Amino acid sequence: MFKKLLIVATVAALSACATSNPDVVHYRDTQQMGIVQDATVLSIRPVTVDGSQSGAGVVGGAMIGSVAGGGVGGNWRDRQAGSVVGLIAGALIGNAVERSATRQEAYEIVVQLRNGERRSIIQARGEESFNAGDPVVLTTTAGRTRVSRAPSVVAAPKS
After folding, report:
1. This prediction's pTM
2. pLDDT tens digit sequence for 121-132
3. CATH, domain 32-50+105-152, list 1.10.10, 2.60.40, 2.40.128, 2.40.50
4. Cα–Cα distance measured from residue 105 to residue 85, given in angstroms and rounded to the nearest whole number
5. Pairing mode, strands 104-113 and 135-141
6. Phi and psi at residue 50, in whole multiples of 5°?
7. Which of 18, 58, 100, 146 has its CA 20 to 30 A from that of 38?
8. pLDDT tens digits for range 61-114
9. Is the CA virtual torsion 51, 52, 58, 59 positive or negative?
10. Closest by CA position to 98, among listed 10, 9, 18, 13
């Protein structure tokens, strides 16, 4: 029984792990045409994206805590009390673990488009770094926008 609960909790915790790294593209974004806009970085500042609370940590922690707490004590009443205390403690700890594990360091990047409009994008830290004045492109696919360095433009040969 405990082994099954542990497996369920592990699967639930791992399914809550996700990435918003701009260097990793979700499979649903493949073979999708994105809108690309040229821009210039105005400012960049580090931010922390708070972790998710999908409930997987609460459920997994509660199950493990209940089973572990139920093993404490000799008589039925002690085991029941231990199970309840373990359930509550496990849920609190599981929620905190999930939130901490899904927290990400990111950047808020403020850009100015060529038409003068400004945009702010919060993006997880990736391989690229940006500075004020850098030319970038904003790629929007399926409602999500990512910032990347603008490719070098080579003039077409004149004939």
Report:
1. 0.59
2. 998 888 888 999
3. 2.40.50
4. 34
5. unpaired
6. -60, 145
7. 18
8. 888 877 887 777 778 888 788 888 888 888 888 888 887 777 788 899 999 999
9. negative
10. 13
Residues 45, 54: Cα–Cα separation, whole Å: 27
Cα 121 to Cα 67: distance, rounded to the nearest angstrom: 44
User: Quick check: 136 and 150 in contact, CB under 8 A?
Assistant: yes
Please give the Cα distance from 120 to 107 (Å, whole number): 10
Q: Which of 156, 96, 107 is nearest to 136 (CA)?
A: 107
Instruction: Quote the DSSP letter at residue 158.
Output: P
Residue with tokens 């040969």: 157
130 within 8 A of 107, measured Cβ to Cβ: yes
Rounded Cα–Cα distance for residues 79 and 85 (Å): 10
At 3-46, the pLDDT tens digits run 444 444 444 444 444 446 666 766 666 767 788 999 999 999 99
Domain regions of the chain by residue span: 1-20+52-102, 32-50+105-152
